[in-house]
Protein 1
Amino acid sequence: MRPAEKRSLPTRKLRAEQLTLPFDSPRERLRRRLRPLLDGGMVLVDNSNGVNLFSFQTAAGITTLRVSDRLAEAPIDVLRDVVAWARGGPQARQAAQHVRAFISRLPHRPSRRRAPKLVAQGDAHDLGALLAKVSRSYFRNLDLRIRAVGWGAGRRHPNRKSGSIRLASFQETTRAVRIHPALDHELVPSWVIEFLLFHELLHAEMGHQKDAAGHHRYHTPEFRRREQRHPDHDRFLTWQNGPLQTVLTRWDRRRA
């Protein structure tokens, strides 16, 4: 009896890009694609920030790049522009425009950041009740995904001496609305708080737009038109230029 004949399966050479392993994470893939493009004075570090997908900082001759893994599948030209932007020089401005344009086309990824723990019940005003009233009156209870509302920390604004202070804010990443604690006073009418909540809920509904340079624009012409249609808009501007100053003076004295 003749011995069984051994047969080998045909083989073929695989190119490097065909050897991507199943456990090759987006972060690892980004590093593998981006590192060969870096200059000698550049360092790539992990970026867990879900808002700013790319940033860089130069110190002591070393440029540190923070690039989100959402750019792992970006075209190689975009990654080259990322490096060119960080490198600086005559090509940096055009490279920045290309990177911003690519990022603006990426699908929105919901934030996984936890909502902050805020206190809504104040000494003079209940922000939870006022928020529900404003949502019902002006947004028809539209689900704006507000996850928290409360009184802020009341930190001084860098331009406080010039009369600038942030009375309210909406944080898009956590869907939280904050009101300055100086307004939790009997001298502040509830309609003032309601108008500020309306302003921030309008931000929550409309979001932001990007201009040609890739900058975020929040107070767009359409935003201003809708805000000006609020029945207390003009009355609030008058209050802001008058009684508000008394409220802030009292607050500063309490904090001194």
Note: The first helix runs from residue 26 to 34.
Protein 2
Amino acid sequence: MPSLSLGTRLALIILLGTIATVGSVLFVAYGALVEDFEDILTEQQLYETRRIASEVNQRLQLKLDVLAESASLLSDGNQLVSQNEMATQLERQELLRSLLPDGILVFDSNATAIFENLYTPGRIGTNYADRKHFRRAIESRKPVISRPVIGRTTGVPLLSLLAPIESDEGDLLGLLGGTINLGRTSIVPVDMLEEIANDEATFTIIDSENFLYIEGGVIAKNGITPLPAPGENDLIDAALSGITSGHAVGPEGQELIYATSTCNAWAGNLFERYPINGQPRRPRSHLAILS
């Protein structure tokens, strides 16, 4: 077999070197492109979660504002109106009832339930003075939204909204309350839920104080399911870690980008996840955390 000339060998060496150099540059460039894509995707997820969180905050504040306005109707200036008058006044408040469809209550100045527009066995006569948000409303004389709590008589996860009822002299006469059943009524606006569904995404709400699934996830008959134990679900662990963005492994073993944002109305976080595969795709799921 004839040997290659020196010129030919030099040409082959240069060609192979060029191919290796180009391959190395392409490999580095691809890695940088994937990294840039992940950074852009994380920023996109942060924006989306902050947008949802902001909208949720505004909707909850609207509920609280309407509740506070309605509270002034339940006093004659010196004392609470009669229960018949309470029923009449609250029946007229269509906006309030639409914003708080899971129940409106009136409490006396000691935080004992004395009126409800939707009957729940054992609720009338129950005292709630030991609940932190009741103490905060009584002491501050300002409307408040609770952290997610388990209803004392209903046994379901709730957000509780309270507004003081005062006399003309500024004395506390009682509290007007409204509840949001987190297992039945979504706090995320319907149009956003539809947008998420159109993106073929999934949405889950969890209560990180009571460690429960609230919306989405595996729901038991009573609407309450405990979160997996630490170490069983990397995504849940990452969401509860307090780190606002990063990588985690999903339940199906898929590596995900996640981002969180705070909902100031109840000091909660919205959490969104996205699969990492080097190719731009739509977000696949969102997870909201109430903490």
Note: Residues 36-55+185-290 form one domain.
